[in-house]
Write a structure and sequence with these properties.
Pfam families: Sulfotransfer_3 (PF13469). By secondary structure, this protein is of the alpha/beta class. The chain has a domain of 221 residues: 3-Layer(aba) Sandwich (Rossmann fold), CATH 3.40.50. The longest helix has 26 residues. It is built from 16 helices and five strands. Helix 6 runs parallel beside helix 9.
Amino acid sequence: MEVVKRIKSAGRILLRGEDKTGPRAEIPPLTAEQVAEMKQFFPMEKFFIYGHARSGTTLLARLIRLHPEVHCNWQAHFFTRKPLLKSLVDSAEMEEWLTRRSNRWNDGTDLSPLVMRAAADYIMESDAKRAGAEKHIVGDKSPNSLNDGESVRLMHAVYPDAYLINIVRDGRDVLISQRFRNFVEESKFLTKEDKQIVDALRADQTPFTTGERSIFTEKWLRANAEGWVKNLIETADAGKRLFGERYYEFRYEDLLYTPLTVMKKVWALFDISIDDALDEAIQAEMSSNPDQTWQKERNKSIADFLPKGKAGNWQNIFTVRDREIFNEVVGEMLVKWKYEL
């Protein structure tokens, strides 16, 4: 019986290759030839919107799809949040199947990157077609603050031909918005001290607007300021290096103050005509704030404290100590992005 088992095992190895165990080999990036082949089946131009959470990515997505030729949806998190797109093929078992020598479909190559690209292309293009027959440019917006520069590298391996649009917001306003989002949602990650701050806010908001009391704990403020800096540095560095002219970055505040000017520059990436009539549509879209409405419905007593989507909220909320801690952590990043002289 042992001899028969050995013969059968040898036969399987000859036909399929040796069964793999443990972690799979690194997933190869798409080649230029594979990209060209994929575009025959999924021809739409692709883009991805990145940025730290609470930096205006949703507003940008709402505005960018006002153009009749552009569609955008959000939170697919193909490359920005686990389990990630690569989880479809990220196992030794899947690698063995997609590279098996007896598989006459794979032409001796690893089909993994093609599987990933086909899945994401179908998700985006099918949604774009439902949005309108004239839509031929499609993208996803997913904040990348959980995966920073790695999200750019993962995207480039599957979409080297896509555009990466990175929106940056003053980190002080980012952290305030993030903090209140956690308060409104009554996040499971709130500590005992955090909950005491929430209770104090409900009881009397005055000390939090006069610099007497902080909405942050020092530990939370330091950790999240560091996260903001890390996200900005890694996203910009990897974006410029990997995507070159297909990488575009700008400030959220500029979008608030001159929305048509900024959106014209964004749409110009795709080499499409831009009608000034879009200005009216942009103004109408910016006058609404779905996130503010949702937060009020969820937790009105906290949500009313912070004006949503505004620039400069931090000036009324940061205490002297908050400013010291933030400036100590962020270094020159505020100057680099022209938030401070």
